[in-house]
Structures are given as structure tokens and as C-alpha cells.
Amino acid sequence: MKNHLVRTHRSAEHFPREEHLAWRIAEVAADPVAVAPETEEMIVNRIIDNAAVAAAAVTRRPVANARAQALAHPYRPGAAVFGVDGRYAPEWAAWANGVAVRELDFHDTFLAAEYSHPGDNIPSILAVAQHAGRGGRELIRGLATAYEIQVDLVRAICLHAHKIDHVAHLGPSAAAGIGTLLGLDTETIYQAVGQALHTTTATRQSRKGEISSWKAYAPAFAGKMAVEAVDRAMRGESSPSPIWEGEDGVIAWLLDGPGKEYSVPLPGPGEPKRGILDTYTKEHSAEYQSQAPIDLARRMRERIGDLDRIASIVLYTSHHTHVVIGTGSGDPQKFDPKASRETLDHSVMYIFAVALQDGTWHHERSYAPERAQRPDTVELWRKISTAEDPEWTRHYHSTDPNEKAFGARAEVTLKSGEVIVDELAVADAHPLGARPFARDQYVAKFRTLAEGVVDSAEQDRFLEVAQRTGELSAGELPQLNVTVSEEVLARAPKLPKGLF
How many angstroms separate the Cα of 226 from the Cα of each of 221, 269, 404, 450? Predict the structure, then answer.
């Protein structure tokens, strides 16, 4: 890996295009380096993972609305929309499938200087591959690039400190991945990356206070913008540049300002793209920083015994966990029994309480209104708080994968005065956890989430196709989609009509 120093440059400065971060990213995307077998294997795992969480979300209102919008745009050759037959405009397929993948907050994650869900790259790149008649080998190459670029940007550039949503790293990574998929030249990818970044910078209010369905739509919007940016760039249109380093660019006005210098790591020429191997998926449908606390709560239940004995619980954790999903956020909505699912998903206090009571976590039952409003749950929930521990913050920011952790230490004080303490650094499903996810676990997750949604023959067909993604011809690539029956689709809420 080579580190690239990135800072603001005045318009009057000589700043060659070849030194722009967007150009460096485009060079990585245009590099024809082979994909390592272990990278390809993990890409296939994440294609299965995305299908699993999309299946579980297929009848939810935001997903049904996004699908309805896409179905209003039939197109040939087009791309597949999750859950249904037919071919649709690729940007709208990317949109609908992106919402389905993101709705339950249940797919892969990478946390460093910034947060991210790199699996959000898959819907847009797959849609373009299907539309453009590319095969599985090209798809694998495009996804390897997208994961690499997203992971590298997330390692180096913090967005949330400036209240910018993390999808600002997704637009450029998806555009770069599409560029690799299509075999575009460096100049074209450079213009697409700049446009994608420019159109996908937005505030973090989508993840603050009363969290709305836009949390699922935001990455889908970034993917859709990436598809459109590539289309414009292929037609010869240019982008604002230098997009990161310009005098009125992203660093100068949206991030740390003209005095800040970032060091962004990127693969050198001929260096394999391995970023996906540093990412991790979720066993539980909840914000990633609550994965280890769920497993910790399940482990502590027996030691605690009667939960009515609890006087208070403090979760000592990293700064990020404390301020994003903990009491450090200052969000009263995180204690509201009538809060939206999206808000409960970002309340580690609620999540720890339910995991303590139930000893498990379910993507639907754990968020049901009757579950959140149970009096004994509300009572326990309001006894829980978080606090920053500098050591957990250090682990969060560590660049050593053997030290990097997103866990917590729980101190449970009983009414008797006894204190029960336990801690867990990484989730059980993490590569360093008690039960690391491999192919069998991804397949099992798909089977579990597809149960009652996708019939068994369709599950078998999809898994067979997915596990040979790299061998698929262009004609076979549309088979990387799962269809469900009209009876299943009818379970979605009745939708009002929009413009389309």
C-alpha cells in the first residue's frame, strides 16, 4: 500500500491532475490486477449476505416503495430488481436493491476513522453488470475495487466528526467499482468519481434524533448517483475538480479545513485489492457497535439471574459507540418506547436490555412495538447508560487487526450493592470472535432470513448460482437475483401512489 497525502490546494497553485485523490483512485480502478482467491471467496460470501438481508426486508414499506419506483422504469437490456421478474433501468434497480439491502442494517461493516457498510456497493455494480452484459469475472473485479476504495477512504478520512453522512465515501467507491467492471480508462473513472462525491455529500441528520426510513435510502441514493455519474462521464462530461482538494472543495468546507492533511492508503500498481478481507458482517440485525454487546448480554444472563435485582448498568465503551448509539448522543429518542425501528437500532441501551431479557436477537421480533413497549423492558432499559473508556476508544482506532475492537465492559450493579462485571472485545461472528463467519455461516444466515419468504427451490437455485459467481457468463448474471411469490409481495403495506 502507498500512502497519499491529501490537502487543500489554492486555485492559483500548480496541482497536477495526476496528484488528485480522485485520479489516484481512478488509477487503482483501472489497474488490471488479478483478484486473489481469498478476496473472491469473500465477495461471494457478501453477495449471499446481501441477498439474505434483502429477503428478510422484501415486504417492509421502504423496500416496497423503492421497488414500486423501480418497476415504473422497465428497460431492456436492464437489470434485475430483487424479488420480482423482469428487467429495469439499472440506476433504478440499483436504487431498489440498495434499499432492500440496507433496510434492516444487517449486512457487512467496516469501522475505522469513519463508519461504513461496504456491501452497499454491491447493488449498483451488479445492476450495471447485468445491464451492460458483463460476466461474473468482471463483476468480481468491480466489487474488489469498490470494497478496496471504500475501506481505504474509511481508514483515512473521518466524515461524522463534521456531521457528514458516511455515504460520501460510497459514491466514489461505487463509481470506481463500476469503472473497473466496465474496463473504463483512468480519465473517465476520474470524472465519475468526482461527480459521485459531489452529489452524495449530505449531513448526518439521517442518523440522528428520530431516525427515518431515509437511513435505508441514503446508500441506495449514493449507488444510483454513482451509476448516473459513470453514464455522464462515459459521454464526455466532466466533474468539479479537484473535488477533495479544491479551494472550495470537500476538505476545505465540509471536513477539517485548509490546514488539514490526510494520509490515504491505496494499492500500488499491480498490488491486489484485499480491502474486503478487513471487513466483517453481522450476526444480529442491529448497528455494528452493538454486535458485541448483544453477545455480552447473552453471556451475562446466567450470572445475573433475576433481572429485577438490577439497580443500574453502565456500558464502558469507545467514544464512537457512546456518542452514536449510547447516552453520549444526548438523544432522548433512544429511550422512547414508541421510537421507530431505525431509532431503536441505534440505541445500545434498548438493545442490551432486550438481549438480557430474551437471550437472543431477532430482526423483527426484537423491534416489534409490543416488544419495545413492554413495561419490564422499559424499566430495565432506563437503568442502562454508556460511558467512554479511553482504552476502548484506543482499541476502536487501532490499526492492528489483532487489537482493533468494538466491544464494551458491562458493570451491572445489583440492588444489594453487588457488582457483576464482564467484557467482550469483538462479536462472536467477527473473524477473531468465538464463532467466526465463513461460507457455511453465510449460507445458514441466508436460509434463516429467507425462510417463509423465498421458497426452498428458489433458495437452492440462488445459492448454487451465487457460489459460482466468478464463472457466470453475461447471460447468466441476471440469475443473481431472488424472486418471491405474489402472495409474499402482498404482505407489504398498501402503498400510496407517487409520481411514477
Answer: 9, 24, 31, 29
Distances (CA, A) of 301 to 116, 130, 205, 265, 320: 31, 48, 35, 43, 26
Which pLDDT score is estimated for 150? Answer: 98
Q: How far apart are CA 382 and CA 136, in angstroms?
A: 50
Task: Please give the pLDDT value at position 400.
Answer: 86
User: How far is the C-alpha of 268 from the C-alpha of 279, rounded, in Å?
Assistant: 20
Question: Which pLDDT value is given to residue 256?
Answer: 96
User: What does the pLDDT read at residue 427?
Assistant: 96
Q: Which whole number is the average pLDDT over 67-81? A: 98
Please tell me the predicted confidence (pLDDT) of residue 397: 87
One-letter amino acid for residue 476 of the chain: E
Residues 354 and 374: their CA atoms lie apart, in Å, by 10
Give residue for cell 457512546: 322
Q: Is the dihedral of CA 143, 145, 148, 151 positive or negative?
A: negative
Q: What is the three-state SS of the chain? A: CEEEEEECCCCCCCCCHHHCHHHHHHHHHHCCCCCCHHHHHHHHHHHHHHHHHHHHHCCCHHHHHHHHHHHCCEEEEEECCCECCCCECHHHHHHHHHHHHHCCCCCCECCCCCCCCHHHHHHHHHHHHHHHCCCHHHHHHHHHHHHHHHHHHHHHCCCHHHCECHHHCHHHHHHHHHHHHHCCCHHHHHHHHHHHHHHCCCEHHHHCCCCCCHHHHHHHHHHHHHHHHHHHHHCCCCCCCCCCCCCCCHHHHCCCCCCCEEEEEECCCCCCCCHHHHCECCCCCCCHHHHHHHHHHHHHHHHHCCHHHEEEEEEEECHHHHHHCCHHHCCHHHHCCCCCHHHHHCCHHHHHHHHHHHCCCCCCHHHCHHHHCCHHHHHHHCCEEEEECHHHHHHHHCCCCCCCCCCEEEEEEECCCCEEEEEECCCCCCCCCCCCCCHHHHHHHHHHHHCCCCCHHHHHHHHHHHCCHHHCCCCCHHHCCCECCHHHHCCCCCCCCCCC
Residue 35 half-sphere exposure, CB side, CA atoms within 13 Å?
28
Nearest to 289 by CA among 77, 455, 142, 115: 115
In angstroms, the CA 314 to CA 415 distance is 14
| Burial of 13 per CB tally in 10 Å (0-12, 13-18, 19+) | exposed
Q: What is d(CA 326, CA 384) in angstroms, rounded to the nearest whole number?
A: 9
Q: Is the dihedral of CA 37, 39, 41, 43 positive or negative?
A: negative
Summary mean pLDDT of the chain: 96
